[in-house]
């Protein structure tokens, strides 16, 4: 571990630009950190040779006067993004051995800007989960705590982007790509003291992202602070003709939005997020956030999002429905795993492959999804859920007539122990209570490290914004970050 591992993206960018640091040096320090981070199980594949080649060309690019925000910056890639010729399995056994013939647009955008790929990051299988316990490659540990005494359990990093947050919090990547379908960027960021932002649905291309629930899936980033998040988000964003849902909009200079000035801005506090049973320390950090916003000159407005309580059930109908359809393509013929059954023909081969290739949680989602889409139940579940989804979007539209951003806790608890919720899917799903409404509405949201709980684990606050207004989300996140002055770091026990 050298000081180079602790640099922020913006700091490294400035040193690279002045010629005081080379991407080759920075990359070597991070290749070593990836190696040292093995106990975290954040990386499932390291791509150090690719990284070395990219670092050399980044240095040449900088010398030629062609530096962009991410040029020469080593990052990790969630295993959900297709990387040409490199392991891409969404951490599922069913994609066994799959190496795509093409690159996802999000990662291509990074390479076009000169970023450096350190490797592929662990995640919940097909991004289904909130604790990274469903990965075929095993649990990812939260750098913030591991068992200290016999009988005590390790702490989850959150999910599904568990590898992304563990690598960034553990100084084994300067930033990481991630995806958020119902909270998978924001909740793990909150659990690990990192910054995460999910932009508006359509801001980034979904081309080459392994599909979970296509109307919700959105790429985003995990970094160690808001400025780095702005820089990296700008790099991955933009219109892509290969994704019909990507928006034909110019990408703003996100970093320029970090003015530090939120005077007069209206911050909405939704009454419905004061859920019964929310731990006091979550309510306390929320109150602190409100106080910080006031001190920075923002105006606090009480708002109402009346359909909030229907968001979780709606999400857990819509997402599995889309997943059951998307995952139908894994049939043992076109990708990865194939289980052969002697002489029994095609149907048993499908069945055996899918039974062996999908984990328990993914099978559960496929069954729920198939059920809610089936004739006779379609109207009662899926169609009804689509209607409620419209009401939830409308709630946000109406709320944003009264405020510029919304401030809430990111998750109803700090990181929990392995096994605490894995036998109880409902308890696990409840962890997404504050993040799924924004996913259903397609609006941008971030999670900012705000403090520690009584056990020394990070807590995050969520900022939600109007569609296409990532700039205000980032601006407010930045002010919140300065006010919270979160400088804690994990103890580096894994080295
Ligand atoms: N935890 C949620 C789920 O399991 C969200 C996952 C995600 O955003 N990919 O579906």
Automatic annotation (TrEMBL):
What EC number(s) does its UniProt record assign? 6.3.5.7
GO cellular component annotations of the record = glutamyl-tRNA(Gln) amidotransferase complex
Q: Which reaction does it catalyse?
A: L-glutamyl-tRNA(Gln) + L-glutamine + ATP + H2O = L-glutaminyl-tRNA(Gln) + L-glutamate + ADP + phosphate + H(+)
**Class of the enzyme per the UniProt entry, highest EC level:** ligase
- A Gene Ontology biological process annotation? translation
Matching entries from InterPro entries are given as: Amidase, Amidase_dom, AS_sf, GatA
- GO molecular function terms listed in the Swiss-Prot or TrEMBL record: ATP binding; glutaminyl-tRNA synthase (glutamine-hydrolyzing) activity
Its keywords, alphabetically, are: ATP-binding, Ligase, Nucleotide-binding, Protein biosynthesis
| Stored Pfam families | Amidase
From the record, give the transmembrane residue ranges: none
- Amidase domain residues are 25-474
The protein's matches in SUPFAM superfamilies, at most eight in alphabetical order, are given as: Amidase signature (AS) enzymes
Q: Which residues form the active site?
A: 78, 160, 184
Record family assignment: Belongs to the amidase family. GatA subfamily.
Q: How does it assemble?
A: Heterotrimer of A, B and C subunits.
Q: Which HAMAP family match?
A: GatA
Summarize the protein's role: Allows the formation of correctly charged Gln-tRNA(Gln) through the transamidation of misacylated Glu-tRNA(Gln) in organisms which lack glutaminyl-tRNA synthetase. The reaction takes place in the presence of glutamine and ATP through an activated gamma-phospho-Glu-tRNA(Gln).
Name of this protein: Glutamyl-tRNA(Gln) amidotransferase subunit A
Task: Please name the source species.
Answer: Temperatibacter marinus
Q: Name the gene.
A: gatA
């Amino acid at each position: 571990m050298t000081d180079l591992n602790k640099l922020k993206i913006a700091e490294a960018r400035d040193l690279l630009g002045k010629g005081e640091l080379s991407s080759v040096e920075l990359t070597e320090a991070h290749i070593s950190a990836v190696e040292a981070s093995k106990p975290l199980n954040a990386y499932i594949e390291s791509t150090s040779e690719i990284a070395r080649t990219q670092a050399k060309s980044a240095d040449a690019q900088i010398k030629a006067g062609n530096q962009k925000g991410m040029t020469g910056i080593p990052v990790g890639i969630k295993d959900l993004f297709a990387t040409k010729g490199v392991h891409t399995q969404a951490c599922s056994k069913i994609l066994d051995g799959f190496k795509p013939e093409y690159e996802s647009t999000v990662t291509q955008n990074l390479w076009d800007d000169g970023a450096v790929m350190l490797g592929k990051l662990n995640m919940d299988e097909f991004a289904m989960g909130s604790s990274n316990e469903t990965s075929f490659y095993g649990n990812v540990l939260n750098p913030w705590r591991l068992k200290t005494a016999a009988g005590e359990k390790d702490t989850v990093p959150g999910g599904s982007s568990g590898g992304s947050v563990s690598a960034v919090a553990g100084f084994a990547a300067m930033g990481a790509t991630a995806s958020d379908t119902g909270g998978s960027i924001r909740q793990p960021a909150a659990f690990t003291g990192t910054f995460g932002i999910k932009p508006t649905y359509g801001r980034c291309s979904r081309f080459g992202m392994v599909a979970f629930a296509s109307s919700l899936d959105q790429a985003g980033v995990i970094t160690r602070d808001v400025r780095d998040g702005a820089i990296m988000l700008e790099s991955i964003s933009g219109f892509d003709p290969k994704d019909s849902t990507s928006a034909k909009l110019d990408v703003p200079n996100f970093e320029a939005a970090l003015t530090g000035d939120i005077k007069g801005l209206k911050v909405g506090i939704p009454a419905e997020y004061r859920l019964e049973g929310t731990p006091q320390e979550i309510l306390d950090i929320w109150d602190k956030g409100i106080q910080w916003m006031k001190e920075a000159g923002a105006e606090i407005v009480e708002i109402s999002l009346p359909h909030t309580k229907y968001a979780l059930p709606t999400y857990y109908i819509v997402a599995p429905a889309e997943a059951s359809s998307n995952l139908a393509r894994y049939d043992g013929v076109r990708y990865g795993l194939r289980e052969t059954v002697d002489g029994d023909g095609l149907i048993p081969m499908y069945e055996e492959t899918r039974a062996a290739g999908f984990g328990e949680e993914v099978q559960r989602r496929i069954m729920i999804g198939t059920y809610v889409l089936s004739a006779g139940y379609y109207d009662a579940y899926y169609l009804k859920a689509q209607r409620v989804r419209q009401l939830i979007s409308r709630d946000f539209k109406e709320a944003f007539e009264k405020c510029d951003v919304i401030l809430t806790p990111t998750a109803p608890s700090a990181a929990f122990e392995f096994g605490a919720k894995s036998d109880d899917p409902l308890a696990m799903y409840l962890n997404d209570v504050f993040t799924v409404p924004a996913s259903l509405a397609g609006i941008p949201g971030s999670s900012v490290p705000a403090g520690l709980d009584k056990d020394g684990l990070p807590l995050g606050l969520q900022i939600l914004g109007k569609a296409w207004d990532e700039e205000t989300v980032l601006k407010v996140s930045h002010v919140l970050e300065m006010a919270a002055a979160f400088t804690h770091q994990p103890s580096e026990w894994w080295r």
